[in-house]
Amino acid sequence: MFGTLYESDHTKWMREMMDKNPEWAEEQKTGRAIWWDRKVDLEAQARYQQAKEANKSYPYDVNFDF
């Protein structure tokens, strides 16, 4: 009744590239593990937040004393 679903040129290109370069799938997993699948140390984050210095109201003020 509806025929085939639309597939964009980009999707077709990506499928073609993945077929030509099957090693990319493993590289994608490695990259994801580096950047996204990290464990977060909540205690270290809390310490970092407590140690942060408050922002100055206007850091570009010429009359600002250091």
- Main structural class: mainly alpha
**Approximate strand percentage:** under 5%
**N-to-C CA distance:** 73 Å
What spatial form do the alpha-carbon principal axes imply? Answer: elongated
Mean pLDDT: 85
Helix content: 40-55%
Please compute the radius of gyration using only Cα atoms. 24 Å
Write the H/E string, N to C: HHH
Number of strands: 0
Helix count equals 3
Largest sheet, in brief, is:
none
Parts with pLDDT < 50 across at least 5 consecutive residues: none
Explain this structure:
53% of the residues lie in helices and 0% in strands. The chain is an all-alpha fold and 66 residues long. The radius of gyration is 24 Å and the shape is elongated. The N and C termini lie far apart (73 Å). The mean pLDDT is 85.
List keywords for this structure.
single chain, 3 helices, 0% strand, 66 residues, mainly alpha
Secondary structure layout plus pairing:
Layout: H1 9-20, H2 23-35, H3 42-51
Task: Give a summary of the structure in a few sentences.
It is built from 3 helices and no strands. With 66 residues, it is mainly alpha-helical.
